[in-house]
């Protein structure tokens, strides 16, 4: 899409909230892969820097060190040593185990040494380094505070501190961007059901839990008659399909020298999902988001699951069945909801767990609510894209910056259900929800749009 | 506790230095991660991060902290901030009482006012002070055999005669010497030692003797006499004073004089004179194996060239010079700075000096060099590019005071051309800039000399040795960056600084300084000779040193450059094949040196028939007859000088290796390792010296005899092994020698067990050694298992020295370094060998080859694998060459980005109507952009076929090996359709059904504009076909993202666009291809979205 179109669209989004639902829809027929990722970072900084500078000057305007007021340094590289100052920039984490295609390629070519790593983490306590960068350059960050708080590549923050050792800025205080505006919430007596990680596996024919869920939603479970009646919508937040590893490599039997790519498509699983949805939409409308395990484009924003997969429910698409992008915004009867299928949080998690850490030691593995909260504080739901999370190379735009603050923010496919109410600096309240994987827990979250209370319903056979 | 304190601050300091490095943003991404030092992360930080609440601002502690920081900072700031350039101050000393000890680095000959030659040494003391030491009183000389007709009483008269005829003759003495050439019953004969006052006048007198124009009482033969000891002044002086290159010199108190300040010619801190007789050369052992704290400067310049033209000093300005200075043995440089024309944004940890005018930049850089006073200047291609460019540029700008940055104030730096030919290195034309008192080490030259690589660009060299890719900025972009603002110039400066820093890291990694220092010490030549001269000078220096001890003189031989060929080393014909049993390798340790020692082969022991008869020598008692038919006397009559030198070298190596084992200090270990290496190389080069027909002292009798002995021994070993290890003699199998080459023999004992085979190998080595003369020794070193013997000098195998685990895969002569191959060949061969030898999976290897060929034919091989590179050296190639033609075509397209003289041209072979390869070459980027079809057949037949057949034939046989190249996997071919040119201009694109390939029209598909993916008949397969399309898209999206984020990381910035044009980088073309492919696939996906369901 051209820059003009892009700008126009953003303005439309701002002026009319109804279009927020299309915020993450990529322009048809006109995708552009010519721009480099630098463009996203620049756009991100342009959006968030003014919001930060405002807040920083406010918070630190009175601070004095040895009688001298702290000043603002506009560019990272202009920080002069031994002078207390604050500065705004993009965080960059230099981590040992980030995906490194250069290494992969070189290794497969030259047979280099294989780096030992624990799966699912980029971090290495010994060597990782945090930096702050802007268009002028980079400076390393350290200080006790840095050890305590969570920062990942791509978030834009303001830091107060001093360059003591050359090239290293010791941070003593940190500020996140001013939150985007939040609409006043309207009350509604509707309730919605949120589920993620259905994990329908074409090989596993035991669909009894799924059957129970369907009966629950369609009101066939009698004891829940009263409850179910007011569920207005089902949102399926990603990973509805789970293709086993054996199935993943799509092989052509006729020609074994043809190219092979990992595929998330499995005909049986897809039709099982189609049937499930077909049955549910007879009673309540369904919104479905794609996730990393679904047959959908992998790069974020993930575009809606394709109609081609819904043989029986195809006719309802756009009506009772809404295929959505991941992430997605909703305005449900005056409550603004933002949701993702969880890739954003999973990726950030990999920045935090050190390579030598045994994740199950103290259960930290199971709590992601802190990370979910952080993304709201950073006012960016996908900071690690495009660094470690694959994403469309937007031109002069970054739609993942929060220009407005949702009332509810849910993240799918997490280890367990968690919920937290946070109040931002300017008083905005956000309900954070971490949705469990259905295939592992059998749990569905019911959200009441009246008081935003949640109810966890669990199914087991 | 002051001691502890200082230790602590030392530790801190080290850490700070490391910070310097990390913060530099020079080596941020992709560097060895072990180099990092990090702020002490708490071990529970993960837990804290996951559980603690968001930041609460508590000003009370915060103010205090900042204040603490401030205090800490001021106490440290001075030592960190000010990069101290100057040398340590000279300690007070008394010339009457104090000795001066310094390491001599560079020596040069000077002509004094009074017409006498003298020399000077530049050096550095242990404390880091610089010394210039004038060596006076040494006169050059040479020898002529004293004719019988000339009596001792004639000497005064002859002296006067010679003095009258020739300027510069000083005195003539009679010495009793012996010529090195031929055994002469150990008789010393009288020689005339002609001593000259000035070395420059010596050759005329020498020629006078040699052509017979000097006559005195008809005593000299009319057609000329042989003269002896032709060696340049400097080396003569060093030989006579026993000073070797890079050794330590002691000047005893009161034996030297200080040069008064008014007469000092140099910028050295100490300038003094000493008579050559008072020069004490300290033996290179114990304390004096050390290396003085040398300052090493590495620098790089950037020029703002014009589009399409390689920078020329007459037109294009120098815009930046980056400098990095370190001390020997320290890992972090203590000076890092960049001199720039026009402003430049700051770079953390480095100083920036900006100047408005280029003239000022040059002048200030000169001042910087004098101030920082480096002992060694290194860089990449500085000898042929940076130095000449700077000097020529200064001349163009008329900065007259620029070319004076040596240690001698009045010496002007000038560029000279030097050509140097050597059998080992070929002919090289180099530029040489004299920088008196500073050693120069051009890493490019060093690496070209010492390593055989595919490519010698800084990119590929650093990726080879340091394992990292580097960002590369094309010269056409440099000018744009310079013309931008302070930020873009900063970007350039960072790049420049990186290029200045890399040579330093390379030098450290390759230990060039240490290894060359040891080589200079072992062979006795000045350091600078090692890069500027060939191999022979090293042997000559050793020979002269030994001869001096033994009163032997060396005739000045005219090199007639007769290209007499002699038979080389032998090779036992290989029994080709794939050996799935252990093959033991028996090696002769230092074969050629041992032969020379064992048989006493030397110039001084060489006999001819007349001498044998004259002296009545008895064969095998007094002398031997070599297999080549030459005669040499035995050791008891005369011990050869070469065997003596060799013995000393090998003994010294043994000692160095022993010391290496016991030494714990890592830097001293490096020194010792460098020494043992130098000793080994020196020992091996002696043989080559005797065989160098265009050399100083060729003696084919020696070299041919050596190889003849070698051949005989290899045969004898074969015989001995095959006779002893037989079933008849009680062994399990008959041993078979399957191959032998120069100094090793491969034996198949037939034994399957590695341990047993190793035992047999050891036993056999010991047994065979007994049949040879001491010190020739056969050693069992390794077992190859499995072993693939392809041909003479071509084999591969797993290399075992211990039976539990193999050490490595060893290959010889197999397509790995040949530069005219594309990378695909190298990678396929490596992989195939891995399959065969490591995994012992021949079928796997076959499948891999088939898959690769299928990939190649179906256009799935990454383009960087297919790129062939060649340097564009001269324009007047006789025949048409692919890369020259391409460069010409590229110039026509866009002069700005076309390769210029000296660049390496990268090209791929594409399908065209032409059959000539030189017309089929194309720029890889152009190929990607225009989707031009690769000539896959060329790659299959001209690149892959030969090496693959060679490897597979011994295993699979001819027929099956052929099938590899023509089986069913070669049937599917995908050819990229060009988007432009030719017929495509007239073609109309019609979509076809993804499934049945029938053309789509508005009527047979469900799309308003006919842009659908499927026809109506195939709609029921939509799900799975779309799934397939998605999987390809996903692999492309992942690739695209991984590639471009990697480049961002490598360049060290998220906010700046990637400019890098390093086409040596394995992902360079992949990047462009991924972009191209993803655009195409996104369009394909859209066809699905256009369908109405």
Summarize the structure.
The complex is a heterodimer of chains A (461) and B (1093). By secondary structure, chain A is an alpha/beta fold. Chain A has helices spanning 3-15, 38-60, 101-110, 144-148, 208-217, 225-228, 245-248, 267-280, 343-352, 369-378, 438-441; strands spanning 64-65, 68-69, 71-72, 85-94, 129-134, 137-142, 156-165, 168-175, 191-195, 231-237, 286-289, 321-323, 328-332, 335-340, 408-414, 418-423, 429-436, 443-448, 454-458.
- In percent, how much strand structure appears in the residues of chain B? 15-25%
Any idea of the CATH topology of the largest domain in chain A? Purple Acid Phosphatase, chain A, domain 2
Mean pLDDT of chain A: 81
Name the helicity range of chain A.
10-25%
Attribute tags:
heterodimer; A: alpha/beta; Purple Acid Phosphatase, chain A, domain 2; OB fold (Dihydrolipoamide Acetyltransferase, E2P); 2 domains; 6-stranded mixed beta sheet; 5-stranded mixed β-barrel; 11 helices; 23% strand; B: 1093 residues; Nucleotidyltransferase, domain 5; Palm domain of DNA polymerase; 5 domains; 8-stranded antiparallel beta sheet; 28 helices; 39% helix
Explain what the structure shows:
The complex is a heterodimer of chains A (461) and B (1093). Chain A folds into two domains: 17-30 and 184-456, Purple Acid Phosphatase, chain A, domain 2 (4-Layer Sandwich); 35-173, Beta Barrel (OB fold (Dihydrolipoamide Acetyltransferase, E2P)), CATH 2.40.50. In chain A, strands 12-11-10-9-18-19 form a six-stranded mixed β-sheet. A five-stranded mixed beta barrel of chain A has the order 4-5-6-8-7. Chain A contains eleven helices and 19 strands. The termini of chain A are far apart. Chain A has helices at 3-15, 38-60, 101-110, 144-148, 208-217, 225-228, 245-248, 267-280, 343-352, 369-378, 438-441; strands at residues 64-65, 68-69, 71-72, 85-94, 129-134, 137-142, 156-165, 168-175, 191-195, 231-237, 286-289, 321-323, 328-332, 335-340, 408-414, 418-423, 429-436, 443-448, 454-458. Chain A is of the alpha/beta class and 461 residues long. The longest helix of chain B has 30 residues, at 1022-1051. In chain B, β30 (794-800) and β31 (808-812) form a beta hairpin. Chain B is of the alpha+beta class. Chain B folds into five domains: 86-291, Beta Barrel (OB fold (Dihydrolipoamide Acetyltransferase, E2P)), CATH 2.40.50; 295-510, Ribonuclease H-like superfamily/Ribonuclease H (Nucleotidyltransferase, domain 5); 557-590 and 699-809, B family DNA polymerase, palm domain (Palm domain of DNA polymerase), CATH 3.90.1600; 811-970, Topoisomerase I, Chain A, domain 4, CATH 1.10.132; 993-1090, no CATH class. In chain B, α6 (233-240) crosses α15 (536-550). The interface between A and B is large, with 114 and 114 residues. Chain A: GO terms for molecular function: DNA binding; DNA-directed DNA polymerase activity. Chain A: InterPro entries: DNA_pol_a/d/e_bsu, DNA_pol_D_N, DNA_pol_delta/II_ssu, PolD2_C. Chain A: Belongs to the DNA polymerase delta/II small subunit family. Chain A: It comes from Komagataella phaffii (strain GS115 / ATCC 20864). Chain A: It is found in: Nucleus.
